[in-house]
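Review this today:
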Amino acid sequence: MSCSSAQLARYVLTTRRVGPATLGRLFQVHATTDILERGVTPFMKMTTLSAILLGALGSTIALCQTPPGAAPRTGPGVQAPQDAKYQDLIKTCKVPPPATPGRGGGAAKGGPAKGPAKGPGAAAAAGPKDVTIAAIPGVIAAGQQWKEVWKVEGNNADGIVATKDGGILLAQNDNSNVVKLDKNGKVSTAYTGLNTAGSVAMNGKYLFVLNRGLNQSIEQLEPQRKTLVNKNNGDPLDCLGGTLNDMTADSKGGVYFTMGGVFHADAKGTITKYGENINPNGIVLSPDEKHLYVTNGATIAVFDVQKDGSLTNQHEFAKLEAGGGGDGSTFDSAGRLYVTSQANGIQVFAPDGKYLGVIPTPRPVITTTFSGPDRKTLYAVSRTGDTDWIIAIPMIAQGPKGRGK
């Protein structure tokens, strides 16, 4: 386990080993801070340790070299099943969780099921691969190129949705915030005080976020901030088993979500489970709200949505022809479905399930949405090692208006 210079600074200050004035003189300092360091004074953004600091803080450095797992991890920034207090909470369940769920339930977006392990021991991010974009009629022109819009360290970009002004909102697992990336690439904190934020969903006036930390919940952020659901028949939501994964909002103030199964929480917070023989991951409601699409390993399942929000007629919509396992998804205004498949890019399907082609990506991708001033820019989150990138590409297709996806 290793520590960054900013982590060392926080430690020595809180333990009063070195005062701020002394510490400031021992580091080479950058003049600015970024979105991940809000609340950290400017001198805490440091690039090198001087020999003086190494000598004075030997015990601090030794602490940072302690093997992973030496200190229990708990609280915001830690997904519930990895929290040191998780088993104590599960013991309170009247109905205990099912056996360890498979992919899409036990590990939420950003967890082990997504690819390379994250955290202090994660391998360095690999460089991007060269990709050639082929034309998909009505979707994207040949030769378009992805642009890196923003880069952030840690598990700090997931579950993206479009904003009405052409930006995107994204959830930050490690920082427990929702941040906004505007159409010009400027980042600001939109919502704080969350509990391991995992995915954002928007539909009309409603905005929600998943909280993946211990005592998991789905929180409404707009039009007023409140908990939509954190219990199921009196049990903590954690008793469903695994981690809240992905979510899509309906126009009535409810949400559909995946957590080792497919669930609907209505506007009153009442939960109903649906689906058979399904190992869900990403989930998205069609623009007309008549169908719900769920990535299911190498396939995509679809349900019919009834007027009361209940789900019927589960069946296979399509197979991921370019390979990989499905993750986050989005629609365009013509009803085409776009499915991220990690290293296999973003696969595109016609409304009838016909495979139209793939938009390859330089790095694995986990979530996507249309945004930009005219909703003709496709955004995605790439993740490799312990780094997230927001990438964007111009499109012929246009995203639906009035919804986050």
